[in-house]
Amino acid sequence: MQKIYLLTIMAALASVAVSQLPADVEKYHRACLDESKVSDDELKQFFQNGMRASDATENIKCHNKCMMQKMGIFKDGVFDADAKMKELMQNPSMKGHEAEIKQALNDCKNEKGANECDTSFKITMCLKDFSKPQHA
């Protein structure tokens, strides 16, 4: 179960195949494609290959930052873990998992990169790593 809700966090932080996106997130995704100069195919390939950090181009990292900004969880280079927690707790499937989600968000919120795109990406990768079995 923990993997399911942490994957939900990941889906909300990073864009997935367009056909799987809710309407608002798809709108953000489309706007961020233009802003970050990344293609849908490039993003889909990144996700299909398991979101390996070594495969992420600067454009993919900047798309991630753009999405987080539009969702109101990344402002001025800072991840707003409280805003993300509040958003996640509106999802009924997250109920009862508050402590684990809070731990994941708090453990990852202070990741820093070379720039804002890199920082947002490092936060996303931290959350992705948190969902692996050693944290179960």
UniProtKB/TrEMBL annotation:
<keyword id="KW-0732">Signal</keyword>
<dbReference type="GO" id="GO:0005615">
    <property type="term" value="C:extracellular space"/>
</dbReference>
<feature type="signal peptide">
    <location>
        <begin position="1"/>
        <end position="19"/>
    </location>
</feature>
<dbReference type="GO" id="GO:0005549">
    <property type="term" value="F:odorant binding"/>
</dbReference>
<protein>
    <submittedName>
        <fullName>General odorant-binding protein 56h</fullName>
    </submittedName>
</protein>
<dbReference type="Pfam" id="PF01395">
    <property type="entry name" value="PBP_GOBP"/>
</dbReference>
<dbReference type="GO" id="GO:0007608">
    <property type="term" value="P:sensory perception of smell"/>
</dbReference>
<comment type="similarity">
    <text>Belongs to the PBP/GOBP family.</text>
</comment>
<keyword id="KW-0964">Secreted</keyword>
<dbReference type="InterPro" id="IPR006170">
    <property type="entry name" value="PBP/GOBP"/>
</dbReference>
<dbReference type="InterPro" id="IPR036728">
    <property type="entry name" value="PBP_GOBP_sf"/>
</dbReference>
